[in-house]
Write the structure tokens for this entry.
Amino acid sequence: MKQMELKALAKINLCLDVLGRRENGYHDVRMVMQTVFLYDNVKIERKDEPGIELKVNLSYLPSGEGNLAYKAAAMLFEEFALPGGVRITLHKHIPVAAGLAGGSSDAAAVLFGMNRMFGLRLSEGELMKRGVLLGADVPYCIMRGTVLAEGIGEELSILPAMPKCTVLIAKPPVSVSTKAVYEALDAKEITEHPDVDRLIEGLKEQNLKKIAACMGNVLEEVTIPMCPVIEEIKQVMKDAGAVNAMMSGSGPTVFGLFENKDEARKARQMIWEKGFAKQVYVTNVHNARRR
Ligand code: ATP
């Protein structure tokens, strides 16, 4: 195989709870992750000359070792002493530093693609073991779907697939550092934990309203005071008819779940008009596993 084109899909967190902090700075989490149909395009081409060449459409992103896609390729070249090289072309659509695991998903796509391209025959589990060395969300991005993530996010259990619904994703033009959010969280007491088990019950019952009612993200308590626009976007989504709206990951992206696509479109229009966010996408949950 000389070249492959892959979709690196974004994730949202339907629930995000933090249970504690490890000595190495990582946090023990309990999260329900969901893949959405918003993606970066990742093209991988084999070349005879050695080396990894990475082209990214966003000039402010690293195109060398600092890029997770590059790191993923370098890891496989080193471990398996692969012949020749690769050219990776990354076209980003997933908002960056947004809580949507864009970089992790690019890395997952490179691991998955190169495994096929070079005939490495690594199982999904073997790919995931390598993925976690690049980032805690990479194993999930390899797996995809509706998944309970525990440990530092790498202990994964498949859950019943999320019922079909429209997902509105809005990334306000503010940056938050995941590290800063977790550090601020360490300094305070978490007052309210989401009911992850009840949300899982909702998934088993395929009850969107129950799932929506159980959504919760402990990081909102930290990020929203830094970026109040998050709360304003949530309110616009709820007023427009979302069954619920919440921040994804450490933010600042907000997503809303809608039963009615027109209502999601209306909310998108209002978010644009109010100037709360420019990057706003109407999409849906994506439950297909990788083949
Ligand atoms: P998470 O949800 O896992 O916290 P995120 O959405 O917050 O992820 P990313 O978009 O993955 O964050 O990127 C965070 C930082 O990682 C960026 O500021 C960027 O400098 C760096 N980075 C490295 N590789 C990539 C990549 N392929 N795409 C985006 N960012 C990357």
